[in-house]
Amino acid sequence: MTGMTSSTRPLLNRRLAEFGTTIFAEMSALALRTGSINLGQGFPDTDGPEEVREAAVRALRDGRGNQYPPGPGIPELRTAIAAHQQRRYGLSVDPDTEVLVTAGATEAIAASLLALLEPGDEVVALEPYYDSYAACVAMAGATRVPVTLRPREGRFHLDLDELRDAVTDRTRLLLVNTPHNPTGTVLTREELAAIAALAVERDLLVVTDEVYEHLVFDDAEHIPLATFPGMRDRTVTISSAGKTFSFTGWKVGWVTSTQELVTAVRTAKQYLTYVSAGPFQYAVVEALRLPDSYFDSLRADLHRKRDLLGDGLRAAGFEVYQPRGTYFITTDIAPFGEKDAYAFCRALPERCGVVAVPNSVFYDDPEAGRSQVRFTFCKKEDVLAEAASRLRHLSP
User: Which of 141, 246, 250, 306 could form a disulfide with 119 if both were Cys (CB 3.0 to 4.6 A apart)?
Assistant: First the structure.
């Protein structure tokens, strides 16, 4: 039979057998099909700064980046990334040897895990976690070991004793995301210091996903793990332009670390995309040089939107876990007498014309987050207000 194989072996690599279409693709397709407001996938509905967009246009017209850029990224962007790390956090990195530009943070995570892990290694990660983490650990042939963030007093918290207990002689790497998607938790200085001390004590590598580094609210502060004693030489720090500058489609991310770790990650990365986003790299140079007023305005805008949607969700009857970072709000549907977040999200577009994402897909143990639903607030205020109005029809 044409196109068929005589083997009974599955076509899909067994390591990926548990992974199907991402929940974001599924729910975004549902939003499109039903004409619902999409508060499921985390992308803004407005573009970022006009001067940054125009910088990309200029690069295209001037022929900068239209052909393959250098493998590690254009020198101007690597210099801008190094300057950002120094100015914001006092982290000194060499733009020539300690910075690598990637196709978004997603590729940076994949390349880091593929480079640094081998079959038999264990990776300790905070769950619920962004879905690509589990897939990348699986592709590397390693084993993920979740440490569950648990809700308490309106927020999610890390149990440091549970984290310590999760580390074994097979643990190679800690995978840390702060500010944390999907819970909105921002790890405190004390929590980060404890993680750093554990990594040093057990001689662990750490990969940190810091893409929401500029999206923190209230009294929260983002502190890169690499700034703690003993961490500079064992931490791979990852971030990107998409979330900070609202150009998620450009897919410009980066890795900063030691020369040895960056060289390892680059070895894997060069066989994934080789290079990407040529003209956009020049635009991100200008984005990273924007004044502090831009970042302050971004935070203030998202703070207002967080409160607008959060108030609407509470009024609709959800239990709301107040996020201190990112642009997501995790809620619980138990007040509605419901327990299955996936079924709830599948039905939500028909019930009130809004799409959200079930957190259960971000857990190894779906029961741990079975009644949790995530909404994004990186949308226009009138869109959030309309969504809140529609959700009020759900009131228990």
Answer: 141
Written as one string, the DSSP assignment of 202-227 is: HT-EEEEE-TTTT-B-TT-----GGG
CB atoms within 10 A of CB 222: 18
Measured distance between the N- and C-terminal CA atoms of the chain, rounded to whole angstroms: 55
Identify the residue whose tokens are 């209230």: 218
Helix (H, G, I), strand (E, B) or coil at 342: helix
DSSP string, 29-95: HHHHHHT-EE-SS---SS---HHHHHHHHHHHHHTSSSSPPPTT--HHHHHHHHHHHHHHH-----T
pTM above 0.90, yes or no: yes
